């Protein structure tokens, strides 16, 4: 089954607790939390205090996507706030190997993410150390952008690397995911779909989540 991780970036920030309940009731597997620092990306969202506050409202898996420079500085803070999975960017400043090992040391699941303009070879030093790859299919920073089809071969590349190396990494796709582009990603080897605007615009996202979960089996 494909794992569905709605991006809370498209939720109503004035009622995040209720929005978490909304995605959970709709059948979402994880909640994708987009953390932006205004440096790595030209936007600022939220950090550990907000995540800690919403943690009390839900038991859903917190899938944090850190679009921040030098992420190793903040791994303990995000772990203390209640994140279950933490993904950092291969393009971020600082020691990314150190960030990954800090995530692992806290008992959380580490992931590595790659921007659309970055060559897939930039991932390779990190693949043996992580459990998930997050392929960005828009330029990070904002929801509601159009899917960049040129990023799809990165999904197949990582899936091929897994087969060659006997690893079973999760491959997640983030940006511009809708029913059509989501299917393209799963066909290319992704098993996790992150989606913000295409899900949150629906009055009832349940049927769409149920349909996406079946991708890869039909
Ligand atoms: C963008 C974020 C995404 C974003 C996706 O920087 O990483 O998670 O919320 O939004 P949509 O699905 O609207 O492209
Ligand atoms: Zn994201």
Provide a descriptive summary of the structure in words.
With 218 residues, the protein is α/β, with parallel strands linked by helices. It has helices spanning 16-25, 48-55, 75-81, 96-105, 152-165, 179-188, 197-200, 206-213, and strands spanning 3-6, 30-36, 61-67, 85-89, 109-114, 132-136, 170-174, 192-195. Strands 1-8-7-6-5-4-3-2 form an eight-stranded parallel sheet. Helix 2 links the parallel strand 2 (30-36) and strand 3 (61-67). Helix 2 (48-55) runs parallel beside helix 3 (75-81). It is globular and about 40 Å long. The protein binds D-xylitol-5-phosphate and zinc ion. The site of zinc ion has 6 residues, from strand 2.
- The percent of residues in helical segments reads 25-40%
Q: DSSP strand (E) fraction?
A: 15-25%
Number of strands: 8
Number of helices: 8
Shape: globular
The Rg value, from CA coordinates, equals 16 Å
Report how far apart the termini are: 11 Å
Bound compounds, each kind once, are: D-xylitol-5-phosphate, zinc ion
Main sheet: strand order: 1-8-7-6-5-4-3-2
One letter per element, helices H and strands E, the order comes to EHEHEHEHEEHEHEHH
What's the rounded overall pLDDT mean?
A: 98
Judged by helices, strands and strand pairing, the structural class is alpha/beta
What's the story with the biggest beta sheet?
8 strands, parallel
Which residue ranges are poorly predicted, with pLDDT under 50 across at least 5 consecutive positions?
Answer: none
């Amino acid at each position: 089954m494909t794992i569905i991780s709605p991006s809370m970036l498209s939720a109503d920030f004035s009622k995040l607790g209720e929005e978490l309940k909304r995605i959970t009731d709709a059948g979402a597997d994880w909640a994708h939390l987009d953390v932006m620092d205004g440096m790595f990306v030209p936007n600022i969202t939220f950090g550990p205090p907000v995540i800690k506050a919403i943690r009390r409202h839900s038991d859903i898996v917190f899938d944090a996507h850190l679009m921040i420079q030098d992420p190793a500085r903040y791994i303990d803070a995000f772990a203390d706030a209640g994140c279950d999975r933490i993904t950092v960017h291969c393009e971020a400043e600082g020691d990314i190997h150190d960030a990954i090992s800090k995530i692992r040391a806290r008992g959380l699941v580490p992931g590595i993410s790659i921007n659309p303009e970055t060559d897939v070879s930039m991932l390779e030093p990190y693949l043996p150390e992580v459990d998930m790859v997050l392929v960005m299919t828009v330029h990070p920073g904002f929801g509601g952008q159009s899917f960049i089809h040129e990023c799809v071969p990165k999904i197949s590349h990582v899936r091929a690397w897994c087969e060659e190396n006997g690893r079973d990494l999760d491959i997640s796709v983030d940006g511009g995911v809708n029913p059509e582009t989501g299917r393209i990603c799963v066909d290319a080897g992704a098993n996790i779909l992150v989606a913000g605007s295409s899900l949150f615009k629906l009055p009832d996202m349940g049927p769409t989540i149920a349909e996406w979960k079946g991708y890869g089996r039909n």
